[in-house]
Amino acid sequence: MAHASCTHLDLATARPFGISRWTRARFANYVVELRDGGLVGRGEAAPHPRYGESRDEGVALLVDLAPAIADAAGPAGVEAL
Question: How many domains does the chain fold into?
């Protein structure tokens, strides 16, 4: 049975980082961790407001999907989900 969790990852740059559309010095990311027995997988999510994404929405989605992730049959089942 798989288990999903996440941790906030607040990143700050030494100096503001910018491209043509925006400049920022803080990034509200999060790390997702999936565990299944002795296997552990981690991935960072970097939601971007330009695309209507937020950390809070991503975390809420993970909470909603956690039961389905727990019922998935191994890593291939999680990927299919």
Answer: 1
Q: Where are any strands of DSSP class E within the chain?
A: 2-18, 23-36, 39-45
For residue 37, what is the domain's CATH number?
Answer: 3.30.390.10
3-state SS assignment for residue 20: coil
Instruction: Please give the chain's pLDDT, 81 residues, in tens.
Output: 678 889 999 999 999 999 998 899 999 999 999 888 888 989 999 998 889 999 999 999 888 888 887 777 767 777 787
Residue 61, SS3?
Answer: helix
Give the integer Cα–Cα distance in Å for 50 and 7.
Answer: 22
